[in-house]
Amino acid sequence: MYPEHPGYLPAERAVTVHQPTPITPAQTAPLVPMQPGTVPSVASVVLPDGRVVTGYAISPVQPEPLAAKPPVSRAAVNVALGGVGFLAVCGGLLLLTSFIAALTAFITQLITLAAVIFGGWVAVQIFSAGGHSGGNTFHIRKAVIKRNHFHG
């Protein structure tokens, strides 16, 4: 590789392999002697530059399974959806009745305004002094109104 590199170790150099000593955690309970089930295997790997790395094989950590959610019953879902639908219908009916009431009030006001305008026009025609002697004649229910005099 690179012989001039200061960290370079030649392949013919002797390598000493050290066995790691496992550290046991401090326990509060008294230790009970027991036979281990299996002795973990020690693996050694020789790197391309000649160094040897030794260690225990570690199995991948498995995540804890998620707690299963309790299933939601179809009856509960149907009741909830029915409640939402019922509230939507009630709200729609409330808006519909409010709209109908407002429309009725608007039409009533239009009819009242038309009656006032038409009645004012009729009153102006009847009670105005037209400037000519003949005046205007209106027949209302077989009665004749002519120049502020009622003839029946």
Compose a concise summary of this entry.
The chain is α+β, with helices and mostly antiparallel strands.
Structure description:
With 152 residues, this protein is an alpha+beta fold. It is built from one helix and five strands. The chain has one helix at 74-127, and strands at 42-46, 52-56, 137-140, 143-146, 149-151. The chain has a three-stranded antiparallel β-sheet with strand order 3-4-5, with no helix packed on it. The chain has a two-stranded antiparallel ribbon with strand order 1-2. Strand 3 (137-140) and strand 4 (143-146) form a beta hairpin. The longest helix is centred in the middle third of the chain and has 54 residues, at 74-127. The radius of gyration is 53 Å and the shape is rod-shaped. It starts with 41 loop residues before the first strand and ends with a strand. 0% of the residues are buried.
What's the main sheet like?
Answer: 3 strands, antiparallel
Mean of pLDDT: 77
Number of strands: 5
What is the radius of gyration computed over CA atoms, rounded to a whole number of angstroms? 53 Å
State the secondary-structure class. Answer: alpha+beta
